[in-house]
From TrEMBL:
Domain Penicillin-binding protein dimerisation as annotated: residue spans: 46-207
Residues in Penicillin-binding protein transpeptidase domain copies: 247-575
NCBIfam families: pbp2_mrdA (TIGR03423)
Organism: Flavobacterium azooxidireducens
EC number(s) from the headed UniProt entry: 3.4.16.4
UniProt keywords, alphabetically: Carboxypeptidase, Cell inner membrane, Cell membrane, Cell shape, Cell wall biogenesis/degradation, Hydrolase, Membrane, Peptidoglycan synthesis, Protease, Transmembrane, Transmembrane helix
Annotated GO MF terms: serine-type D-Ala-D-Ala carboxypeptidase activity
Protein name (Swiss-Prot/TrEMBL): Penicillin-binding protein 2
Subcellular localization(s) per the UniProt record: Cell membrane; Membrane
Keyword flag Membrane: yes
PANTHER family reported for this sequence: PEPTIDOGLYCAN D,D-TRANSPEPTIDASE, PEPTIDOGLYCAN D,D-TRANSPEPTIDASE MRDA
Length: 617
């Protein structure tokens, strides 16, 4: 036992010494570096953000040099404030506000005083910087947009705020972060890794070289480049077609779920949110509460789907075996139920095919009625119908890789039991659901995804905008197939009906020679509140399509607010964008001229002017 005491003591003392050395050389140094140590100056080296390309390899977003004026409040000495303000073009009040903000952050640590100087402003300040102790220049990079479209997809770069810093210790005051769009979604890949240098200072506050010979210094690493699924050519074309209009367009490749175009109108030039005017420009865009250019209508706007919803009514009717291809309903300009009447523009007997290409309200009202009444109670029927809809990705967040989103609305029996007393409603009470005018709401991306599922005859992939990340693999959820509850055998007759919409139906004037397009026109009632009163506005124009009929390469959904009816505005836009994508040319120059020259600004102005709106029924 005594023999073991001495070796144990030696081992204990040795471990204690090693632990102390580790603390003094490693832990203690780290605490020194993290503290507000006046003897050590921290200098950050900011990397370039990753570049952004489109699916064809076209450069969309690069970088440009930018310069921030940094300040360490405690080091300011003998400052001629007026000369300083004159040089950087700010007022004395602005100067005081910025200095006070820097002091609140830390008197000893650097923070951004004036961000994003251009080369000319930088040169002017750099020439006289020696006169302004406590201030120095920090070089960064800002976004340099190679295109003037796609702002809603890209997002923008802005300075972090205190809440962001508290949430993520990677960021410090003055750091830049991606907001909205792919800049936010893929921030951790795009931002890279900033480098840090620790500079030792003497008692006179002069730099005397790297701290600990630079063993704690790190080098910056440029952000990862990303390739988007976007086709910038049809994105640009779609934005041109939507000038002087409001609404959203989404185009997706059905076989992959890759988003080809994501258009929100009105939009803005992404370059507006770069440089010293960024804050001013953002405020102007944000405060435009009428046009809402920052509001991504393709992802956020929830619209009644109108007649394109009849495609789903038909598929559910077939799956539930309440109709087949030969089932015929007779239409007398509408559908009577109780003492009410749903108007229709047709008359005569309609089979499934004719019901689709003629967009007969009566046909789909009868189909919906049969779906609900198949079950012992209306509640069971509505819930079965609702479950079919949800299998298409409706009524919930879709899981795509862009920050904003809305669930839309797919009603269940619980909703109607709340509106009416339990058992106090039946199929005809909610018959407007049959034609997409009930409580169902969809975003443009949801409706486009429905078209992908139809084009694929029963399945879809989660829509996504990322195609490739340098040195990384994309999330496997974007390559996972989602099956609907509709059997494959029921899609061909519905697809044929959509094909005949172009051949002999409501879109027969929108044909494109050489391309077999399947589509569906839509007109949706449009209501808003003006001075507390519910007012009906001019109807929305809606159109959905995919092409070619066999082996589809593109699916599209177009919503144009106050656009009158489906074939008037939305339909031509869909045909033009399909032709542009598939052939890279336009033969329907008549449609192109019509849409490029059309404006709905007078319609939107009626909300303020009080002029009457056009009601199509």
């Amino acid at each position: 036992m005594r023999k073991a005491i001495l070796p144990s003591l030696i081992i204990f003392v040795t471990l204690a010494i090693l632990a102390r050395l580790f603390y003094l050389q490693i832990i203690d140094d780290e605490y020194k570096l993290k503290s507000e140590n006046n003897a050590i100056k921290i200098v950050y080296e900011y990397p370039e953000r990753g570049y952004i390309y489109d699916r064809k390899g076209k450069l969309l977003v690069a970088n440009q040099p930018s310069y921030d004026i940094m300040v360490v409040p405690r080091e300011i000495k003998n400052l001629d404030t007026l000369k300083f303000c004159e040089l950087v073009d700010i007022t004395k009040e602005e100067f005081d506000k910025k200095i006070n903000k820097a002091i609140v952050y830390s008197p000893r640590l650097p923070s951004v005083f004036l961000p994003q100087l251009n080369k000319k402003e930088f040169a002017a300040f750099q020439e006289k910087i020696r006169k302004f102790e406590g201030f120095y220049i920090q070089k960064r990079s800002l976004r340099d947009y190679q295109v003037n479209v796609g702002a809603n997809v890209f997002g923008f770069i802005t300075q972090v705020n205190p809440a962001m810093i508290e949430k993520n210790p990677y960021y410090r005051s003055g750091d830049l972060i991606g907001r909205q769009g792919v800049e936010e979604q893929y921030e951790e890949f795009l931002r890279g890794k900033k480098g840090v240098k620790y500079i030792q200072r003497d008692k006179f506050n002069r730099d005397i070289g790297p701290y600990k010979e630079g063993i704690f210094d790190t080098i910056s690493k440029q952000g990862d480049d990303i390739t988007l699924t976007l086709d910038i050519d049809i994105q640009k074309y779609g934005e041109e077609l939507m000038k002087n209009k409001r609404g959203g367009i989404v185009a997706i490749e059905p076989q992959t779920g890759e988003i080809l175009a994501l258009i929100s109108a009105p939009t803005y030039d992404p370059a507006l949110l770069v440089g010293r005017q960024r804050s001013k420009n953002y405020t102007q865009l944000y405060n435009d509460s009428i046009a809402k250019p920052l509001y991504d209508r393709g992802l956020l706007a929830e619209y009644p789907p109108g007649s394109p919803f009849k495609i789903l009514t038909a598929l559910i009717g077939l799956q539930e075996e309440v109709i087949d291809e030969q089932t015929t309903f007779f239409c007398r300009r509408g559908f009577s139920y109780g003492n009410r009447f749903m108007k229709c523009h047709d008359s005569g007997g309609f089979s499934l095919n004719a019901g689709i290409y003629s967009s007969c309200n009566t046909y789909f009202a009868n189909t919906y009625k049969k779906i609900i009444e198949k079950y012992p109670k209306p509640a069971y029927g509505v819930d079965a119908w609702s479950n079919h809809l949800k299998s298409f990705g409706l009524g919930n967040f879709m899981g795509y890789d862009l920050p904003p989103g809305r669930k839309g609305n797919v009603p269940t029996s619980k909703l109607y039991d709340k509106y009416y007393s339990a058992g106090g409603w039946k199929s005809t009470t909610i018959i407007s659901n049959s034609i997409g005018q009930g409580e169902v709401l969809m975003t443009p991306i949801q409706l486009c995804n429905v078209m992908c599922a139809v084009a694929n005859q029963g399945y879809y992939y989660t829509p996504h905008v990322i195609k490739k990340i340098k040195d990384h693999t994309i999330d496997k959820k974007f390559t996972t197939k989602h099956q609907t509850t509709i059997d494959k055998q029921y899609f061909p007759p519905v697809i044929q009906g959509m094909f005949d919409v172009y051949n002999k139906g409501t879109a027969s004037r929108l044909q494109v020679k050489g391309i077999e397009i399947c589509g569906k026109t839509g007109t949706a009632e449009n209501f808003t509140k003006i001075n507390g009163q519910r007012v009906q506005l001019t109807d929305h124009s809606i159109f959905v399509a995919f092409a070619p009929k066999d082996n589809p390469k593109i699916a599209i959904a177009v919503f144009v607010e106050n656009g009158y009816w489906g074939a008037r505005i939305a339909g031509p836009i869909a045909s033009l964008m399909i032709e542009k994508y598939l052939t890279d040319k336009i033969t329907r120059t008549d449609l192109e001229k019509k849409i490029l020259n059309s404006s709905l600004e007078s319609e939107y102005a009626k909300v303020l002017s009080g002029e009457p709106f056009r009601i199509n029924h």
